[in-house]
């Protein structure tokens, strides 16, 4: 069972109005002769202790173990050239042979050839950009210093673009240990444009995760020697700009949208309908490359009997459609008038209210707000066994109906939830995965009325199932609801991940700082404000970057606020500033 060091007081919620970078902004323009600055993305950081002792913490933990990629071809096995040249490469000295091949080509042709080996085909920024071969990506960085700066810049700019475009590419880069490799390269890079792009790579990676070893490596690299900053180390301070901004949960299920991609639930013997029921989860769409909207119908969930009677929700383009069916002649569909954007987290809640003598209804909430209500005149109760229950796919498990993206904790409640409670669930944020048992866990987030309504025991006792990415053993997803609750399942309530799904545990800067001693570990950087760079100049914006980062961290974390006070942080910073 995976264990994470987290602070229960830091329940972070997404701001529904916060805008994310659009695809059009994904690829930075590179000019080797210019001094154009690059917007740092968000980063990831390797696994080395500050004292030089390597720790055995995985860069990205998975409760079910690291995803073992399907057998892939290396650069020596696959080299697809857009010019259809025959380029046989032996398994021996394949890196040198690849270098020899690309040395005879223009930068554009060489870049295309290398990118083709990463995606197992003809690379295309719109249709084929998902990295399939982590091994080839690792080999690319191993030979990085042996290719020209202009080719380095061209490859890095495209790589940054596809990392920003897809969470799956970020996961592949973590699996390939790119973070450590970038730090190894920084000391040898002379070209400022390439150095800026490498820093951008780190910034994008740390937007997903930064664990203890990675943060230690960053801080160790930022430590000056003889009052001189290491090469390009001042550029790394830009990473701090983005560390405080955390969008989404630290843990999630990753669905690649391929065959055998979904969660399989055990049979449900009695569906909760008498008091209504509510389905809620956080999700993010990560669209499949080269998808055909007319053919694809990815399902968020499928809760049905063997005859196909039950409840489903599927996407048509960027819209979500909920469906209900009892008999062949009785079916109901409702399209939610809301356009979901790719790569943004949303909380979706369907609150079903059953009326015996009048029309039943379903209320659709997005990010805690009611967006539509649908009525249907017939009862949807069923005494049949719900033995076809899936999250993220259908019984066929094929790629056309499989969800592509990420899901956080998935709840089913055996009661209809009032809008006030739904708003409270949204305030708890995508990271919440508990049982609504302890009121103090959200005392600083919820209103008095919401706390009373959510922690009086009724909500906890109504949990039919709670599947979250932390409660996993190998491919088994444990039912994390209270054991004392009435069971609605035929046997045990544990679900199973199909082969292409993985549960991912990342590390935010907040939990990582807490693990290595708190916010005070960055205080020594204030003692280096007047230290020179290798060319003898002094960078005067170091102080502003550090102070801005500190302010953002304090604003977003009660734990860091407490650490600043208990460690006399303001007094310490003042002392360092006085010395400069």
TrEMBL record:
Residues 1-74 are annotated as: Disordered. Residues 488-580 form the DUF4704 domain. InterPro entries: ARM-type_fold (IPR016024), BEACH_Domain (IPR050865), ConA-like_dom_sf (IPR013320), NBEA/BDCP_DUF4704 (IPR031570), Neurobeachin_a-sol (IPR046852). SUPFAM superfamilies: ARM repeat, Concanavalin A-like lectins/glucanases. Residues 1-13 have a biased composition (Acidic residues). One of its GO terms (biological process) is intracellular protein localization. GO terms for cellular component: cytosol; membrane. Residues 98-237 form the Neurobeachin alpha-solenoid region domain. Residues 59-74 have a biased composition (Polar residues). Transmembrane segments: none annotated. Pfam families: DUF4704 (PF15787), Laminin_G_3 (PF13385), Neurobeachin (PF20425). GO terms for molecular function: protein kinase binding. Signal peptide: none annotated. This is DUF4704 domain-containing protein. It comes from Adineta steineri. The lineage of its organism: Eukaryota, Metazoa, Spiralia, Gnathifera, Rotifera.
